[in-house]
User: Which sequence fits this backbone?
């Protein structure tokens, strides 16, 4: 795990129905031990629908991505409820099993943070006996006995002899974690004009390769107490009105300034390395709202959109930043999903040469976490 408990990021749970208010096609075979199939198929025939919350742009994007992924060939999945005999305790207990197709697991694990599925329902005409399983991680085989309402299920079965005629209504729900941006910047027509027309600029930011980008001292100082100190404390920047940011490109500087002047920046199409450069620049100059926006942007990117080098850069940058713990955990999940790419990356090879201790610590951490079991995370939403 990275850092400590996340204090600043607001995480929320998103949910979609994979199946809603369904009834088994065949009689529910509760005769102990027994089972009934809740779903068998490729998930391509299901209509996704949201639960309880209004749809925002991020939800729409995720649903569209899932819908597109479902057009690709999918392995069959199988979900059922069962009644197992617990021999040591000489009793029967309800459980749920899920055998999920590899393509379905890969699709959702790539798009979503901590995706799980769970089953909830009720016995027909008996709202006093609801049941709900705990969340099942998206892996090939799941088996859960932790069912809320299990005692009610067994009590009902003990009361009835016609097991196969006990009907249920059930839903299968997909749930994942999302991150929310807590600070929104308002756009100003005056600042917009200053930015676009460069009216009466009085300083500049020096980007990589010595590229100078004109801007306004007051705007920089109002957004960053670090830059304010640089411009007012007798440092070189206060004398020549040049802020050196030679570790980022002119493109990144222009995006930074657009944000500081109140413009919206397109995070949906932003490259991951650009978002990382903005993240570390925002942290360096204590621009907390931009740091949060970039953390959420990176957190919500699909796993396969990252290069291994960028993953490593983000991981080591966030490793000891408590407020970015969940982003760090996401990077770890990506690294442990494909250790071969890690070994082949130029950043890791350089790390072995320059900081062998850090390289070994990362390798040991990935071994400790194991392969294929995602670690917990939680962040904001755009």
Assistant:
């Amino acid at each position: 795990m990275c850092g400590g408990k996340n204090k600043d990021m607001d995480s929320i749970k998103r949910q979609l129905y994979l199946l809603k208010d369904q009834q088994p096609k065949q009689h529910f075979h509760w005769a102990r031990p027994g089972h009934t199939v809740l779903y068998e198929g490729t998930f391509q025939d299901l209509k996704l629908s949201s639960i309880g919350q209004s749809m925002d742009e991020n939800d729409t994007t995720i649903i569209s991505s899932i819908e597109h992924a479902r057009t690709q060939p999918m392995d069959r999945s199988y979900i059922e409820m069962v009644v197992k005999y617990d021999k040591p305790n000489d009793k029967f207990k309800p459980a749920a099993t899920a055998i999920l197709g590899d393509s379905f697991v890969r699709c959702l694990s790539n798009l979503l943070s901590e995706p799980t599925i769970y089953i909830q329902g009720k016995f027909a005409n008996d709202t006093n006996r609801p049941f709900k399983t705990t969340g099942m991680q998206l892996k090939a085989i799941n088996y859960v006995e932790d069912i809320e309402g299990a005692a009610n299920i067994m009590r009902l079965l003990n009361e009835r002899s016609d097991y196969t005629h006990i009907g249920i209504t059930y839903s299968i729900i997909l749930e994942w974690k999302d991150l929310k941006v807590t600070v929104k910047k308002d756009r100003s027509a005056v600042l917009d004009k200053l930015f676009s027309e460069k009216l009466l600029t009085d300083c500049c930011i020096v980007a990589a390769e010595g590229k100078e980008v004109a801007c306004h001292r007051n705007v920089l100082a109002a957004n960053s107490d670090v830059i304010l100190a640089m411009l007012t404390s007798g440092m070189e920047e206060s004398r020549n009105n040049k802020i050196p940011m030679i570790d980022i490109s002119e493109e990144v500087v222009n995006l930074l300034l657009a944000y500081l002047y109140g413009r919206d920046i397109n995070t949906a199409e932003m490259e991951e390395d650009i978002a990382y450069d903005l993240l570390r620049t925002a942290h360096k100059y204590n621009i907390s709202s931009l740091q949060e926006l970039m953390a959420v942007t990176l957190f919500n990117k699909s796993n396969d959109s990252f290069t291994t080098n960028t993953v490593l850069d983000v991981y080591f940058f966030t490793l000891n930043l408590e407020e970015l713990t969940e982003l760090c955990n996401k990077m770890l999940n990506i690294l442990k999903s494909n250790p071969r790419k890690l070994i082949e990356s130029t950043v890791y090879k350089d790390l072995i040469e320059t900081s062998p201790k850090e390289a070994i610590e990362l390798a040991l951490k990935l071994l400790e976490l194991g392969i294929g079991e995602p670690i917990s995370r939680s962040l904001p939403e755009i």
In short: The radius of gyration is 26 Å. The mean pLDDT is 84. The chain is about 40% helix and 25% strand. The first strand starts at residue 10 and ends at 22.
